[in-house]
Amino acid sequence: MAFLARYSYGKRLFVSVALFFFGATTLTYAEERQQSHTTYELGFARDLTLTLSAATISGLGTLLYNRMSAPSSLQDQDKLLPWDRPLAGRYSEGADRASDIGTVLAVAPLTVGAIAWYQGTSNGTEFATFTLMFAQALAIGNGINLAARSLEVWPRPYMYSPSTSSGTDAGKEKAKSAKAEAYGSFFSGHATAAFTVATFTDEWFRTTYPNSPYKGIMRATAYSLAGLESALRVAAGKHYLTDVVVGALVGTGVSIGILEMHRNRNENFSVWAGPGVAGITLRI
Question: Is residue 86 part of a domain?
Answer without folding.
Answer: no
